Amino acid sequence: MAAPWFEEEIATAVSPLLPGLTVEVVDEIDSTSTELMRRAREGRAQPVLLIARRQTAGRGRMGRPWQSAQDAREPASLTFSLGLPLLPRDWSGLSLAVGVSVAESLDPSNQARVALKWPNDLWVEDRKLGGILIETALPQDGTAERYLVIGVGINIGAREAAGMSVAPAWISQWRPQATAPQLLREIVPPLVAHVLLFGERGFVPFAERFAARDALRGREVQLSDGSAGQCAGVGWGGELLVQTPSGMKTITSAEVSVRPAPPND
Ligand code: BTN
Question: What's the CATH number for 7-211?
Answer without folding.
Answer: 3.30.930.10
